[in-house]
Every structure is written in C-alpha cells, then in structure tokens.
Amino acid sequence: MTNRLDAVVSSIVEGVRNALREHDVTFEEYRKGFKFMMDVAEAKELPLLMDLFLNTTIVEIQNRQAQGSPSDLEGPYFRSDVPLVTDKIKTMPEFGGTPLVLRGHVKDTDGNPVEGATIFVWSSTPDGKYSGFHDNIPVDYYRGKLLSGAGGAYSVESTVPVPYQIKNNGPTGALLEAMGRHSWRPAHVHYKIRKDGYKDLTTQAYFEGGEWVGDDCCEGKLTDDFVIAETVEDGKHVMDIDFVIERAA
Ligand code: MBD
Ligand code: FE
C-alpha cells in the first residue's frame, strides 16, 4: 500500500528544495524566511497566508471533479450562527450603501429545482468590514441564511459590498508589500449552499468590471461563471445567480 501522506509531504518538501536551489537562496535569506514563518504564527496569520497562496489550489482541484457550480474560497469570515432571513438582511443605515438584491434559483445537476436548501450569504459592509469580526458590528448584520422556496427560488436584499483589503499591518502584509504586490480583493458576495443529501457548495460572486476582479491578491476567482453583470431595477442593484448543487456520494 502506498503511503499518501509520505508521498504528498515528500513532494512538497522537494518542491520547496527545488525553489531554493533555483534561486541560490543563501543562509541569510533562509533565516529571514524562517523568521517570517515564526512571525506569521505569532501574529496568528496562518489562515490569511493560506488563503493568499494555497487555498485556491485546493478549490481548483475540487472543481476539476465537480458537476455542480464552481466553488471558491470560503475566506476567514464565515459564521453559521446567523439569523434566518426572508426578504431583507439587516444593514446599518449610518453606513449607507446601495441596495443589492441577491436572487436566483438552486438546482440539482439534472436541472431540477431544489427547495428547502439553506443559502448562507455574507459580504462586507459598505466600508469594507465583516460583521461578527470587525468594529463590533453584530453578527446578524450583512449576513444571514435563507431558504430556497418554490421552484428553488431565493431572493433577499442587502447592500453592495466594496473591494476588500486583507489585513496588511502584519507579516503577511509586509511580505506582499516587499514583493511589490497589493493586498486587495475585488468586491464579492460569499455563498454557502447546504442541503441534506447534497454536497455543500461554497462559492463567491463578483461584479463585472469591478476593481481588482482580474487582479485578486488571493487569486480567488477560478472561472468567470460568477462574475455577474449587475442590472438595476427600481434603483436596486440585482445579482441574479442560479446555483447547481451536486448529490453527496
Ligand atoms: C476575505 O474577505 C476573503 O473572502 C478571503 C478569501 C480572504 C481574505 C478576506
Ligand atoms: Fe470575503
């Protein structure tokens, strides 16, 4: 029997060794890299670093086999302890923001509607914060879970999110800066669709033409499936998305 753990870890180590050889990395540089990893651990930025460089690759591998809609990064700000919402997600009037209607359908891979699926949605405030994590914004704002109804339809109103700058005042931000890279993600809406008997679908949607859509620091978007052309109806922006979920094995 092959030892998969040994196979994967050995390949990772060999890949890193080859990178060091390729660039004639010196002992001094090696020590700096070593210190960087210690700093990342101490600043508790390991999840951020993984989102930045490696998580997308796992999503990419997952998407190779997928029959349903493409997955995307979950990111660090999912919360399952959120209220059930029907027509409106709570938003804070003092933040303003443009109304955004999130609507569409949940279907299975045969195109049949899926009713009673739970759709978690979460996105940034109009000033780029996530509730339940930043500035003491309560967790029941700017996020919620809704249920798909007749015909698999869902619809809920929130506000348009903005481009998001990942934490840039720690070692990860310093690395990006030193590499000459930026720390921005395009404006996005997160979704997680959950239904008994089906695989969870965790994904994100973006706005066509939005800043950083083609230059996400986390390289989150793997396909253009959920880069959505916004339409405006009665002064409200609309993000219309049909999700296809796959039966669990
Ligand atoms: C986010 O909001 C996000 O979605 C990801 C993937 C990483 C950092 C912040
Ligand atoms: Fe996010």
From TrEMBL:
GO biological process, one term: catechol-containing compound metabolic process
Domain Catechol dioxygenase N-terminal intervals: 3-68
UniProt signal peptide: none
Pfam families: Dioxygenase_C, Dioxygenase_N
Keyword terms of this UniProt record: Dioxygenase, Iron, Metal-binding, Oxidoreductase
Listed GO MF terms: catechol 1,2-dioxygenase activity; ferric iron binding
Chain ranges of the Intradiol ring-cleavage dioxygenases domain: 74-230
Domain of life: Bacteria
Cofactor(s) of this protein: Fe(3+)
Family: Belongs to the intradiol ring-cleavage dioxygenase family.
Protein name (database record): Catechol 1,2-dioxygenase/chlorocatechol 1,2-dioxygenase
